[in-house]
């Protein structure tokens, strides 16, 4: 009887997998994502994703394990009676930090040593706090390239002498870091945009309701331009209107006004579509959002 518990994480799959019986077999050694064994020994593995996802009934899984530092395999098995469940997320975080420190950081040490002295990002990326929106992943940028401001609904308050928060990030990015681009990025299936469309649904969340007031002009524009639009078609259009509304608010900030006057700043309006990975950018000449960057790339 073998009692082994492994906590693993690799692209698109994570969980705890417990093996209660196993028979030995010879398998090829393959490197993959980090697995942290219950005895805290860190190892690498490559496992067929579909095998894991379809293993809830307890069918056998083939695993090949080897130490991170190389060397002989730790275990070579065909495992039977395995079941998959979600781990404590703290274990996921531990495995992720461990992988970064042991495998990622060493390969980019010189970059981080340079960044430790100063940052000089090229763009302010202002987007929603939604966990499905990952600016560096969408833009394929690295550390030090984006100055990121996130909040529910990617909202930009109209400039005020009293309000800070988002305004402070804008001012610092534009006036101190002297970024060259501001990107306001909305996204599909945004909960805040849904709340802007139906304010009654967030009536029991007073802080959220107050925050969403910065998006109400977009709602008014939607109903003015498309008074008879079916509800199913309202959300994607409101998402775009909200981005444009926040660009209008951005223009009220003195730091932005000055940078535009000096012709050193470009403002972009994006909508990221989670379901297909597309980015749509606002084309001011055509007065519409269109797929970006286009077929030429």
Please describe what this structure looks like.
By secondary structure, this protein is of the alpha+beta class. The chain has two domains: 4-107, no CATH class; 119-292, Carbonic anhydrase (Beta-carbonic Anhydrase, Chain A). The chain contains ten helices and 14 strands. It has helices at residues 49-53, 89-104, 109-115, 135-139, 166-176, 191-197, 206-211, 216-225, 231-250, 254-261, and strands at residues 4-10, 13-19, 21-24, 33-37, 42-45, 61-67, 76-80, 83-85, 123-128, 146-151, 181-187, 266-272, 279-283, 288-292. The protein has an eight-stranded antiparallel beta sheet. A six-stranded mixed beta sheet has the order 10-9-11-12-13-14. A hairpin with a 4-residue loop joins β4 and β5 (42-45). α5 packs parallel to α10 (254-261) and α8 packs across α9. The longest helix is centred in the C-terminal third of the chain and has 20 residues, at 231-250. The chain is globular. Mean pLDDT is 79; it is low at 1-68 and 73-84.
Domain module count: 2
State the major sheet: 8 strands, antiparallel
Shape designation:
globular
Sheet with the most strands: spatial strand order? 3-7-6-5-4-1-2-8
Which structural class do the helices and strands define?
alpha+beta
* Structural Rg: 24 Å
Can you identify the CATH class of the largest domain?
Alpha Beta
Report the CATH architecture of the largest domain: 3-Layer(aba) Sandwich
Number of DSSP strand runs: 14
* Percent strand: 25-35%
CATH fold-type name of the largest domain: Beta-carbonic Anhydrase, Chain A
Low-confidence stretches are 1-68, 73-84
CATH superfamily of the largest domain: Carbonic anhydrase
Distance, first to last CA: 56 Å
């Amino acid at each position: 009887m073998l009692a082994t518990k492994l906590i693993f994480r690799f692209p698109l799959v994570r969980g705890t997998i417990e093996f209660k019986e196993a028979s030995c077999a010879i398998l090829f050694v393959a490197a993959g994502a980090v697995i942290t064994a219950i005895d805290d020994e860190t190892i690498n593995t490559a496992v067929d994703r579909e095998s894991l996802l379809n293993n809830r009934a307890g069918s056998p899984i083939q695993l090949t394990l080897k130490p991170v530092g190389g060397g002989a395999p730790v275990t070579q098995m065909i495992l039977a009676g395995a079941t998959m469940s979600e781990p404590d997320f703290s274990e996921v975080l531990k495995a992720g930090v461990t992988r970064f420190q042991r495998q990622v950081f060493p390969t980019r040490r010189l970059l981080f040593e340079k960044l430790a002295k100063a940052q000089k990002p090229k763009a302010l990326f202002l987007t929603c706090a939604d966990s499905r929106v990952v600016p560096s992943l969408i833009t394929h940028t690295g550390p030090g390239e984006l100055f990121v401001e996130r909040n529910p609904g990617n909202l930009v308050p109209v400039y005020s002498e009293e309000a800070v928060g988002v305004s402070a990030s804008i001012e610092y990015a534009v006036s101190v870091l002297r970024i060259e681009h501001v990107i306001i990025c909305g996204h599909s299936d945004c909960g805040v945009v849904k709340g802007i469309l139906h304010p009654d649904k967030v009536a029991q969340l007073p802080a959220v309701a107050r925050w969403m007031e910065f998006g109400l002009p977009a709602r008014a524009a939607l109903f003015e331009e498309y008074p008879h639009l079916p509800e199913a078609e309202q959300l994607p259009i409101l998402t775009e209107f909200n981005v444009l509304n926040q660009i209008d608010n951005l223009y009220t900030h003195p730091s932005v006004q000055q940078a535009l006057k000096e012709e050193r700043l470009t403002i972009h309006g994006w909508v990221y579509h989670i379901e297909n990975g597309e980015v749509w950018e606002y084309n001011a000449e055509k007065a519409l959002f269109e797929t970006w960057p286009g077929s030429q790339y």
